[in-house]
Specification:
By secondary structure, this protein is mainly α. It is built from seven helices and no strands. The protein has one domain. Helix content is 70%, strand content 0%. Helix 2 packs parallel to helix 5 and helix 4 packs antiparallel against helix 5.
Length: 100
């Protein structure tokens, strides 16, 4: 079920659901669920799209930013590889998130 769920990210409509999606992802992440690590690349990419396109309210965008920050902290090598493979339009989002 989880791989199918990930394939539907980022959401293409009903962006209010991003809050529930990222609450669930953060919960799984904090529990150390091993499935999440397998899907870090598509999850980080989807997260950056949500931020870049402002697909949510302030609370949602903070949840997404927290998720990205935790991945960067806990999986630095994988995160750097993911960032290196990003499309050009998402690279500035990463720079903006971690510039301060």
């Amino acid at each position: 079920v989880f791989p199918v769920f990930v394939n539907y990210l980022p959401l293409r409509q009903d962006f209010d659901e991003n809050k529930a999606v990222f609450r669930c992802l953060l919960h799984l992440y904090q529990m150390g669920h091993p499935l999440l690590q397998k899907f870090l690349s598509p999850l980080v990419r989807a997260s950056l799209v949500v931020i870049n396109c402002q697909q949510g309210d302030k609370e949602t965008l903070e949840l997404v930013s927290n998720f990205i920050s935790m991945v960067r902290r806990d999986f630095a090598e994988e995160f750097n590889k993911i960032v290196g493979d990003l499309p050009a339009e998402l690279t500035p989002v990463v720079q903006q998130l971690f510039s301060s």
